[in-house]
Every structure is written in C-alpha cells, then in structure tokens.
Amino acid sequence: MSDNVIEKNDNDGIVTLTFNRPKALNALNSDVLKALAAHLSELEGQANLRAVLLTGAGEKAFVAGADITEMRDKTPEQARAFAAQALSTIKRLERLPVPVVALVNGFCLGGGCELALACDWAVASDNAIFGQPEVLLGVIPGFGGTQRLPRRVGPAMAIDLVTTGRKIDAQEALRIGLVNRVMSQAELSSYAEELTKQLGGNGRQAVRAAKQAVHDGLDQDLDSALALETSLFAFCFAGEEQKEGMSAFVEKRKANF
Ligand code: CAA
Fold first, then answer.
1. Is 200 helix (H, G, I), strand (E, B) or coil?
2. Of 5, 9, 201, 208, which is closest to residue 103 (Cα–Cα)?
3. What does pTM read for this prediction?
4. What CATH homologous superfamily does 202-250 map to?
5. Is 133 in the pocket of ligand 1 (CB under 6 A)?
6. Which class would CATH give 6-199?
7. Torsions phi, psi of 9, nearest 5?
8. What separation in Å is there between the alpha carbon of 208 and the centre of ligand 1?
9. Fewer CB atoms inside 10 Å of the end CB: C or N, the chain?
10. Do 202-250 and 6-199 fall under one CATH topology?
C-alpha cells in the first residue's frame, strides 16, 4: 500500500485528510479505503479531536469516484466485498464524534459524492461538479448513494440523479441542499481556519452531544428521538462545560472550556 494516498494535517485537533491520487482524480481504490480506515482508527482515539475535513489533492477533483480500473474485472462476490469494505469505513467516518466536513474542490462523482454525503455537511468551490454517474458504467451507486442521497436531497431529485447519471454544478448542488455553501478555491483552502474560529469557543462535549442527537435521532421515530435529545440535554448538565458556559454568560465574560 502506498503510504501517502491520503495525507493528514493536524492543526490543534482540526484534522484535514487529503485524498492524494491526483493523476487518477483521487479515485478510491482498495489502498485508499485501507488508508482511510487506518486514519479513522487513530482519529477515533484522539482526545483533542475537534473536526475532520476531507478534501482532494490538486485543483481538479475532490474524488472522481471508486476506481473504475480496479473494479472492471471484479466478480459479483468481489464487488460485494469491495462495497462492504467501503460502506463500513464510510460509516465509521460518518460516526466520528466531531463535525466531519467535505471541502469539495472539483469533481465529486460516484463514490466521491457518496463520501461527501457521509460528511455532516459539505462546502464546494465554485468549479465543483457533482453526480452519481454509475448507470453510465452499467452499475448503481455502491457506497451508500441510493440511501444517503434521498435522505439529503429528497427521493425525487435523488432518483433523477441516480437514473440519469447527469452531472450538476456547485450552484445546483447548493439549491438542492447537497452542499451548504459555495465559495472560491481560495476561500475553500482557508476554510479550516474559519471552522477553527467557529468551533473554538464551543464546548467540545456539547458539540459531540449535538451531533450524536441528530444522527441517532434520525434513525428513530420522533417521540424516541425527542426522548434521546432530553437525555443528552440532561447529560450536559453533569459536566463542567455547562457550569462554565452558563456562569460565563451570567458573569458577562467569555467562557473558558
Ligand atoms: N477511476 C479510475 N480512474 C479515473 C477515475 C475513476 N473513477 N476518474 C478519472 N480517472 C483517471 C482517468 O482514467 C485518467 O487517467 P489517465 O490519465 O491514466 O488516462 C485521469 O484520471 C484523468 O481523467 P480524464 O482524463 O478522464 O479527465 P477529464 O478531465 O477528461 O474528465 C471526468 C474528468 C469527467 C471526472 C472523467 O475522468 C470521468 O468521467 N471519470 C469517471 C467518473 C465516474 O464515472 N465515477 C463513478 C465511478 S463508479 C463508482 O464510484 C461506483 C460506486 O458507487 C462505488
């Protein structure tokens, strides 16, 4: 396995993972998935972790999909194993206890779009292109796209995209709710600093509990999900962050978490 198929940069707990196969537009092969799993094993145990950003090396692509060259000769059993490897890794990424953000800096197709969909939110450069073009290759999305895309953009738009395989630009991705914001390449490359400022003054346990409430709640009926929120809200009062945060407000000073 090549060592640097994913580059890692850690700026005081704001970790950027950069998919680094620019000659193949950062396509996801087995080596990349193994490297991602190895990074996740480290991140899952990192106490000072505050956020994880995903992006692609070069100016052309975030990730242009699963590696078609590697997939071409797979049997159904091998295809099933490849998808299972990707799905379990992507699920671990989704469930990291901190915000996970896709910085989409170009082509974001197939497995790349599915990766972005597993992130808590995505921001795109104005030249980004999105799509689930698998039907053009005689297959369907295999890394979660048929399930996460309708949950993000609604079933009608999801079926439009997965059956036509058409590509959409950053503005359309923004309009349908696939990404939260569109910015220039330069702004995208300084997004880590912006996020550092945004998360910097927040209680870390509160941020983790907020993400957990949304994710776990989405899998439940509304009453159960609201009960979960109540439990997590009450749990916050057992920690020091709530005492500090509310005392700081009352004492008219900045909270020190
Ligand atoms: N897998 C393997 N190699 C890829 C790739 C992919 N998904 N996407 C691009 N590449 C390679 C190209 O083969 C080319 O390699 P060579 O220079 O060795 O020929 C290199 O990256 C540059 O690509 P292009 O020359 O094609 O660049 P372009 O600017 O003309 O086109 C593109 C860019 C429109 C993104 C085009 O590369 C493309 O259509 N790529 C495939 C996109 C795709 O179909 N993705 C879905 C894959 S299937 C999937 O992801 C299934 C799933 O759900 C798991």
1. helix
2. 9
3. 0.96
4. Lyase 2-enoyl-coa Hydratase, Chain  A, domain 2 (1.10.12.10)
5. yes
6. alpha beta
7. -130, 130
8. 36
9. N
10. no
Full 3-state SS string of 177-195? CCCCEEECHHHHHCHHHHH
Ligand 1 contacts CB of residue 14 (under 6 A): no
Residue whose entry in the numeric block shows the structure tokens 């995208």: 188
Ligand 1: which residue has its CA nearest to atom 45? Answer: 65
Is the Cβ–Cβ distance between 103 and 188 less than 8 Å?
A: yes
One digit per residue, the tens of pLDDT, for the chain of length 257 reads: 456 999 999 999 999 999 999 999 999 999 999 999 999 999 999 999 999 999 999 999 999 999 999 999 999 999 999 999 999 999 999 999 999 999 999 999 999 999 999 999 999 999 999 999 999 999 999 999 999 999 999 999 999 999 999 999 999 999 999 999 999 999 999 998 999 888 888 999 999 999 999 999 998 999 999 999 999 999 999 999 999 999 999 999 999 98
Domain residue ranges in the chain: 6-199, 202-250
Q: Which of 44, 70, 77, 134 is catalytic?
A: 134
